[in-house]
Amino acid sequence: MARPDMTLSVVGGIHPNADGGNRLFEIALCAAGEAIQLAPEPKNKHDPSAVAVFSARGIQIGYLSAERCGWIGSKIRLGEEIRAVFQAPEKGGALIRVSFSGEDPVIPPSRPAQTAGRSPEWDDSFYPDEIWPDA
Where is the HIRAN domain (predicted)? Predict the structure, then answer.
């Protein structure tokens, strides 16, 4: 039985690439559904189980989070076909969607953002003018 698609965090977006490239800028250029490449880095001096994440343009956008890189990296090294696509930007990084079935991953529908304590009907675009109130 195939494993279900997973959403994974990409971390380290705030750090520059070795060539000075800006990861957050590259993340901003990524579109939902765009192909992502995963590359294990067994010679990484900080973490030999690190898995680098590259955009469709071949620019590194970060690394898989430490919780998942060992497991995902081992699957890649064993030759399992893992496909990944960009899902969404996130503060300091991104979310990607991976599939273990050999098919392109399916991005789940996004949930509407809500501010804590506010109902969905709240209209943030209305601000009364305190100096010149309506008559």
Answer: 30-76
Q: Which residue has the higher pLDDT, 25 or 110?
A: 25
Domain 6-99 fold: Alpha-Beta Plaits (3.30.70)
Q: What is the pLDDT of residue 8?
A: 95
Identify the bridge partners of residue 40 per DSSP, sorted by sequence position: 51
Given CA atoms 9, 14, 20, 22 in this order, what sign does their dihedral have?
positive
DSSP string, 21-89: -BHHHHHHH--TT-EEEEEE-TT-SS-TT-EEEE-TTS-EEEEE-HHHHHHHHHHHHTT---EEEEEEE
List the domain boundaries for the chain. Answer: 6-99
Percentage above 90 pLDDT, the chain: 65
CA distances in angstroms from 124 to 73, 90, 118, 131, 134, listed in the order given? 44, 22, 10, 19, 18
